[in-house]
Amino acid sequence: MPEHSLRLPRRILGVIGRVERGLCVAAFVVVVGVLFADVISREVTAAGLYWAPQVGVWANVIVVMAGFGLASAGGAHLRPRFADGWLPARWEPMVVTLQHGVTAAFCAAAAWLAAGVVLESWRLGEVSLDLFLPVWPVQLLIPLALGLATLRHSLYAVYAELRPAEAGLFAGARADPQ
Predict the structure, then answer these.
(1) Fewest 10 Å CB contacts: which of 22, 49, 132, 135?
(2) In terms of residue numbers, what domain contains 94?
(3) The whole model's pTM is what?
């Protein structure tokens, strides 16, 4: 495929990756900071910060959802590999395209369901019992992350040149061809 036709998809993936990395790092710093503050508070005053567990959980949700995209972008996501040798090697390009297409469809369906949960939380006015803040803004990260994963895997299904090499998580993983 001509390089000029890959500019926009590369730019889109680059922006998504930068946003995910920034969110992941910032949320991880919050997790560590809140944990540290809570421990210090317990040592100094013999009482923890009542809001620390809730803020830590919410920040961890951000880390996990941003990390989901980062794992996919790096080819390090977990996938079952028990059937990798069942099909002829010449089918690999088609199978990998199908894998990304199915992953995109799965993420789109999960994003749709998660968006329904967020909408229902918003309609009901659900709030955190510890912070008395609405929970839907944090929940919104789930369908957003899944929506970005849908976009990412759709681009991987269409543009084979943009796919990450599989990370060597298992002994049978293939090496980076680049």
Answers:
(1) 132
(2) 3-78+88-162
(3) 0.81
